[in-house]
Every structure is written in structure tokens, then in C-alpha cells.
Amino acid sequence: MQLPPALRSRLLGAPGAAKPLPVERDPAAGAPPFHFAARRVRFPRDHEFFEDGDVQRHLYLQDVLTQVSESPERPRVPEFTCQAAGCCQVFDSLENYEHHYHTLHRNVCSFCGRAFPSVHLLDVHILEWHDSLFQILSERQDMYQCLVEGCAERFRSGGDRKEHLVRRHLYPADFRFDRPKRSGGPATPGAAVQDSAEALGEGEEQSGGDAMEVCPERAAPRPEPVGQRRTSSHRIPSTICFGQGASRGFKSTKKRKEHQ
Amino acid sequence: MWRGRQGRLRPVGCVVEELRCQRREREAALRKARREQQLVSKRLLRDDVLEEAEGECVAMILGEAEIQQFLQLAQRGTDEKQRESALVSLRRGLQHPQTQQTFIWLEGSMRTLVGLLTSNRALLQLEAARCLHELSHSEQSAVAEACLPATSYLLTYLSGHSSDFIELCLYTLGNLIVESEAVRRRLLPQGIVPALAACIQSPHLTVLEALGYALSQLLQAKEAPEMIIPSVLGSTLPQHILQLLQPGPKLNPGVAVEFAWCLHYIICSQVNNALLISHGGLSTLGLLLLDVAGAVQRTEDAGLELLVCPVLRCLSNLLTEAAVEVMGGPNQLEDERVVAALYILLQFFVQKQPSLLPECLWLLNNLTANSPSFCTSLLSMDLIKPLLQLLPVSNVVSVLVLTVLCNVAEKGRAYCQHLWPGPLLPCLIGTLASSDTEVVGQSLELLHLLFFYRPEVSFGPGTPVLRPVVSPWPLSLSILSIATFLGLASLCGLQFRTCSLWLGRHSSK
After folding, report:
1. How distant, in Å, are the alpha carbons of B16, B65, B151, B275, B291 from that of B284?
2. Is ipTM over 0.85?
3. What is the spatial distance between Cα A257 and Cα A197, in angstroms, rounded to a whole number?
4. What start-end ranges are recorded for coiled-coil regions in this protein (chain A) (predicted)?
């Protein structure tokens, strides 16, 4: 197919429309038996007109057609250790380290050390577990927000929220990012440690590898003096420690109870 | 851009002819599936580099006992490396359909896998997700449905930060979505559309390509026009999609292909195309077409037709919307560079992919049908002759070419003056002799319009254009030869009547 040479330069030229020639239709032109009428045509999705293109698309999905270019080199690096405090995991690839970091160290509650898969879930957790104002307000109005992105519903209690998640959103009843709090008031670090110790035990018996909330020996919960207000600083990285006498490390529950 | 992915079972020592034969078989199978409305295709994300590091890729069949053993080791192993390698072995086994079946019927297996998926051990989580991904690739809906307990977690992880993990979750979701309506019925209330709308803001190209894939699978569902597309249109997805299709240095072809197909599924379902037009869909797609035509000129990259096809479809279908009919309105597509781009693509497809010529010509029809400006562009840019060169390709292409020519001719005398006389007549004599009745019918319509608006064009011996064809013979005899051609081609009654009426009308002048 030969194209006029000026066409390519037209493509690169400025936008513009041709000044149309005068249109002078004569209705007699469409008299029977001739019936041509210029019209735009639309095709619905399953029309056979689309068959060839659809088949090409599916061949591509199935990889028969894919242009194979050089896969980006994934460099193996010399072994290195995770820099988060208390974490001694070793890695030899950046991708694995990236996932580890995001899973365990990125969205971590600085009160109790639980890790969450997203900022949203962490925020909800802090609000519901560590904010005394939330507790007060929730006695008077619906404060427990639905966990599903895009759903604006709120509920009086965690239990109501769970029921909503199960009924409306078809979530599993044991959804791991909606664990109920055990104690009544705002969760204290002590209680959290107790919680996590129990949960850890529980987890090992059940389907192994408990939920994200549990902090293993690596990301140890940092005890904070009870009553210290937390506003914008609840996402402090784990390398920072507050308060005199505050220590890092996993203390046994027995000792914790004594101190309280 | 295009990541090389090997097939499931690597052909060892395959001859080129065998590969071609396999491809033909796949094509035939896909055509059959499409006619039965069961066209399902999935993407398998397998890290070839990782597999090479692990050694020979062999899909092993695992029995119940072995699966249980691997699961227990993964759950309770003391050594981290041991736990990981147990899952790796399980994953390799799950590449085989038989192992997949055994796995899903084994009590507690999915629960354990979901437990590992949601564990605090990042690398176990990653391996568990890879196992799920293998399962998602199964062709059995039972296997896809067995993965349902994991879907709420897969969606939750889309709002995380680890791009490789999110990519894996998205491809897994895409595969599950296309396999079973039960899965889609679960995912919609679980909030897949808002989750995707949030995830589309990711800066990672691999995540975006995966997201486009998952969304395209969702939009392909047969219940999509009623159940899915309205909520997609109600979200911020359309604006983001159009943004990702903006031409420029940031345009990624792999990402663009997926989202162009998403747009096509939305547009051809005709739920609310006016919304897309109001977001500037026509101009974005028009500019994208220009960009691709430019790229086609610069490189021989054969992957571009994967992007061109949905863009052509989107533009053609959008042009039929009422919102576009308002002449001179803001939603018009009036840039004649689009026509230039289309011809460059026509030339490209003649060589590379003739099966896509009809779709290009469909857009040309929709551009020229109601637009004197575009018809004038065809004439002023000397684009009639190239169009005539396409006539011999196939009957479908012929009909479309003739229709476009009719679009020009029906606008009246000023247009016909540029068409007639010219190289058109010899081509039309050729098409009149076609055995396809639609081709002949359209040729007659065109001839009629040309003679109607230019009755003074004579067939006498003095007409230089016609001399090589019918020179010594008077008008009646040339028409008689046309009639002979018509007679030779086996016509249906209507065509015969049409042409005899036509003969009657024109021979009397």
C-alpha cells in the first residue's frame, strides 16, 4: 500500500481540520432500489466482527505472542541484615528484603508493636485499641468503621462491625485483621504483651503462623508509660524508644504484672 | 515492557514447525471458545530467574501424604529455611493439575495455606501467595472456588506497599475472577472495585499492568454491564485509566494495552459512554492513536497492534454516541491527523496483521460517515488511491472500502468531482465481478451515486481514462459489458433487479 509522501509530515504537523467542501445532497439519490445512507456503526462486545482481535488478545494473555525482551536483571547482592532494631533477618535479594520490611516494619503500632498490612488498618487499630477518646465517644455513637475500602458504615461495637463484614461483605468470620480487644479500656502495653503471648501460643496450635498482629521475638513491643498521650507520633519507627526506664525487649508477662 | 514468560511445560527440542502448528491449534480453539462465549485466558506469573536458580523446572505430582508433610513443615518447622523450602516444593507440585486437585480436596489444606499467607513471616507469606497463584491458574472452576477463603486477604494486601507482592495478588485475583462467577459474586461485595481504585494510584508500572489485567478480566464477565461496570464508572477508575493512556514519555505500552482493553469492555457494553466522553476520552484516545502511528513508523515493534486494536474499537464505538453528534461541540473529534494516523496503521497492518484491517476501516467509516471535513481530508490528502489498493485483500475489506467511498460520494457533487473520473472505474469493474453479493451491492451503490451527481461524465471514445478499458465502444455497449459481468457472477434476484434498474436509469441519459 503506497501512501502519499506528505502524509507522514502531516502526522507530525499541527492539529487542524480540513475546510469542508460544500455538501449538496439530493434526496433522489437515495431513491429505491438504492438505499445507501452514511451512518456510524457500533458493534456490541460479542459481535463476530471482533473475533480476530479478541483471539489475538487471548493469545497474548496466554503468552503465545508475547514479545520476549530481556527480563530486568535481578541482582543478587551480598548478604545483609535488616536494620530494624531487634530484627536479625538476613537477605540476599532486595525484593525479599522489601517485602519483609513492608510486612514487619512499615505499619507498626508503636504502642503494642503489632504490624499491619496497610496504613488504613494500622490507623483503625490505634484508634480502637489505644485511644481513650475513642472509647468514650464509642459509648455514645457509632465509631467502629467498616474495614472495607469504600464502605462508610460505622457501628456501635466491634461485634456489630464483624457481623456487617460477614453479612454484607462476605468476609470470613475469623478475619485476622479484625481481632477483638480483650480488655475493656484502652489497650495498655502490658495487656498487649499478654495478648500477644497468648495469641502466639494459640496461633501455634491452630493453623500456624498467626496473624500480623502478633509480634514475634524480633519486633519486640516497647513498653510505654501508661497515660502518656499519643497524638501524631504513633508511627514512630521502632528504633526510637521513649521514656526513662523504658526498655526494649520481650519481658515475660509475670514480670510485667509485678511492675503494674 | 513485555516480560518474557515461558509456557507451563517448556517444550524441549521443539521444532519451529511444531510451534507454528501448536499456535494454529490454539487459535482455532480460541475461535471456537469465543463462538461458544467461553473465552477464558489467564496470565501465569512465574519468575523464570527464580526457577533457574532452583534448578530444573519439573511439575511434580504430589500425593496427599506429601502435601500434608510440606504443609506441616511450613507451619511448624523450626528452621526458617526449612519452612520456606517446604512451601517451594509445594508450589512446584501445584504446577501440576493433579496435585491441585489433591490439594483442594485435602481437609484443612486451604486453611493452612491462608494461615501462612497471613502470617508474620514475610518470606513464607510470599511463597504461600505463589502457591495460591499456581492454583489460580487452574482450568477447573472447583480449584478457583477453593481459593475463596483467601480473597479478602488478597484484597487487603492491595493497599500494602510491597510492589512484587501486590503484583502477585493482582494476577492471582485476575485469574480467579475470570474462572468462576461464584468468585466474582464474592469479590464484588468484598470491595474489589474500591480496592482497585485505590491501588491504581501506585507508581509501580508492574503493579499497574497487573491491575489492568485484573480489571480487564472483571470487565469481561458476562454480568459486567449490569453488575460491575456501573460501579466502575462510579469510582475514580475512569479518570485514572484515561490518565494512564495519555501519550507522552510516561506512557508504558504494557500498562496501556491492559487499560485500553478495559476501556473497550466498558465502552462496548454501552452503560454510560457519555461519562467517558465528558472526561475527555475521545481526545485522549485520538492523541494516543497519533502516538502509536508515530511509533509504528519509527520501529518494527510487532507488539503495537495489541494496543492499536482496543484503541480503534474504543474510538469507533465512542463516535456513535449521541454526545458526539453535536456539531462543533467540545466533544468532537475533528483533527485530520487522526486520518493520517489511520492510514499509516492501515499500511502497517497490510503487512503485519491483515486481520485487523476491517477494524481500521470501521473507524474510517465512523469518521467519514457524518463528517464533510474528514471526507474532504481524504480528498485533499490524496488518500483515495491508497484505499483502492486494499480492495483485493478480502471481501470484508472491499465492502468497507466501498462504504467509505460511498460516504464521500453521497455528500454531493463537489465531492464526486474529485472521485470521478479517476482510477475508481477500473477498480469498480473489478469489484462488480466479485462473487460476493455484498461487494457487488456496495459497488452498485457507489456507481449509482457517482453517476447521479456527475451525469455529464461520458463514456465516449474521447474520454482518456476509459479508453484503455472500453475505448472503441459506445456507452450502451460498455454498459452491456458491465451487465455481462453481472450476469456471469451468480447474483441473487435483488441484485439483478437493482442493476437492471440502474442500467435503465443511466442508459436513458
Report:
1. 40, 56, 34, 14, 10
2. no
3. 13
4. none
